[in-house]
Design goal:
single chain, alpha/beta, Rossmann fold, Beta-Lactamase, Alpha-Beta Plaits, 8-stranded mixed barrel, 26 helices, binds ligand C2E, binds magnesium ion
Amino acid sequence: MQVGLSNVLLIEDNRGDAGLVRALLAEAPGGPVAVEWVDRLSPGLQRCAAGGLDAVLLDLSLPDSQGLETVARLRAHSPGVPIVVLTGLEDEALGIQAVQVGAQDYLVKGQVASAALVRSLRYALERTRAEATLRALYAESERRRAEAEALAAKLAASEQRVRTLYQAMACGVLVWDASGRIIDANTVAEQLLGARLDQMHAHTPDNPLWRVAREDGSDLPATERPALLALGTRRPVRDVTLRVTRPDGEARWLLVCSTPVLGEDGEVVQVASSFVDITARKRMEEALEHHALHDVLTELPNRTLLHDRLRQAILAARRDNTSLALLAMDLDRFHEINDALGHRAGDVVLQQVGQRLRATLRASDTVARLDGDEFAALLPGTSAEGATLAAGKLLRALEQPCVVERHRLDIGASVGIALYPEHGEAAETLLRQAEVALYVAKRAASSYAVYAPEQDQYSPSRLGLVGELRQAIEQGQLRLHYQPKVGLKSGRVVGVEALVRWQHPERGLVPPDQFIPLAEQTGLIKPLTEWVLGTALRQCQAWHRAGLELAMAVNLSMRNLHDPQLPDAIAELLAASGVPPAWLELELTESVVMADPVRAMESLRRLCAMGVRIAIDDFGTGYSSLGYLKRLPVGQLKVDRSFVRDMAVDQNSLAIVRATIELGHTLDLEVVAEGVEDRSTWDLLIALGCDLAQGYYLSRPLPAAELECWLREWPLES
Ligand code: C2E
Ligand code: MG
Ligand code: MG
């Protein structure tokens, strides 16, 4: 098909020539639709730049350009525009040169017919277009060739990489064919599976080289192995953990992925299985699990594992309609051993005890260490009778002293027993009840106790508190309230008693009766008392600076008094706070002093020598020997509030209070009445000659700031 000429530009400075050429073009059939004319090169270039031209007819001698340069400039300016040179010079050599610098044709003025002119223009246009197309095609094919080359190089490189990886990979790779036979294996696969590739060729589902088990240890049937699954389902099978036992008997944990390779017809051609050795990780996990479920010191199951086994045992007992027993055991003098001989000795004792307990019971029983010196035993299929027999056996196992660093240490213990289904059906309940029974056994100083519902006052919640108490001390959840001691004759406030409370984040303000006994049992009483002493002494000092000359009374426990470091610790705390020793009073209950009078005496003498004052608290509730009382360096007797409370209505109580006041005075002691709740009691105490009073009638124990307010308003009466 012929191309049609629409726009042609004529660049010709000779107006006559230009007219001639336009006439020629106009008369030729198939000539251009429009001929534009300019008489110099520069407007010609501008027109070319605007586009839409099919060809340029170009005169070589123009006012602004001469000869070949004219062609060269136009070509350089507009590479895509066909140029036909039309010149007055008849010069064959020039014509050839014009074509060389970029013209498509060369015509001589006056020698060219109109048809030839049009043909030449059209030919120039066709050639230019064809060239452009060719150039584009060529460029495209070049691009593709380059791409293909790059791709080929990449493919070769990646294939090489794959092979290198395949061999050098840390993971094993097996390739299976569609019939489920192994056709390739890398070196790691051979090493991990303990077989060479040629041996693997013989591996079939019916004649396996390896034994394969699931994570839970059960055998994995051949059809469920990842490679065959991938083959059957045409889907990848990912991250299956398997335990593979190799031909040499060694077991390895492998994490396996199997991927089917599909052919064009969508059928599986091959399956590639890759796997990593996670044996080390598995062993670590097992060790961690063991660690998480066992006590490091004794290697016995810990509370978590006991709990778990207890739950299982309850399920089994429910199913089989049998009973079970849970025993909680606590060593009697363990803290003393720890305090006296150090933690290392304590640890040895715990290990020996653990071994003995374990050796005493059946293999089907679980012996666990719960906390500190607390052990537990779970006895499946055991009734009340069996449980008490077992408790007896366990206690007898501890009758022989433990020998630690040439010391022979007597280790007593107490046991609490809870039974399924009599006492509860849930693991938590039984554990708690065994601990309640243990607590009861301890308090009653009997070797064991079977849980009874009326023991519940020994408070499941109180037992739960122990674990949190240590944190409470460290995290500053303890508070001190102060209750004034007032002179009965003078009405003067002579001092305060510091009483600890626990500001529990959930339970609110917990009174000391609910955690002091437990702190005493667990040894936490030591840091607790130190906190109380430190806080009370700092408060005492602050009040003295503010002109409030109040003595500060602090309560001590039996364990505090038996701590040989106590006097030194108190001396340090006094020095740190700057409080003179005479302002500190230590309150001890009778039973504390009488439980071990010799040791108590020693500590008390040292404290007394420092100038600290000692008071006997709750007097009348214990079994004080008057003989001892005489010899103790005590300055104050506090009549127990149970007598004071009733003295106005109960003759017996009144008699006791009167006798106590007299006794105190004969021994030269100041007598304090605790728990004064009303005016009549107050008056009665004045009449009996009691020295000081303390109680709600005057003030409840108050936080320091509130006590200061109270003091400002006191005395209300005198
Ligand atoms: P306690 O040393 O005999 O303290 C007196 C207790 O009687 C306080 O109970 C006090 O609030 C209460 N009380 C005072 N006046 C009255 C009254 O008029 N009527 C009645 N019904 N009660 C009154 P709280 O604070 O609950 O303390 C109980 C016990 O806890 C104390 O008895 C003391 O043995 C012990 N305790 C308190 N703080 C500490 C401490 O820091 N260390 C030690 N080891 N024991 C402490
Ligand atoms: Mg007290
Ligand atoms: Mg008291």
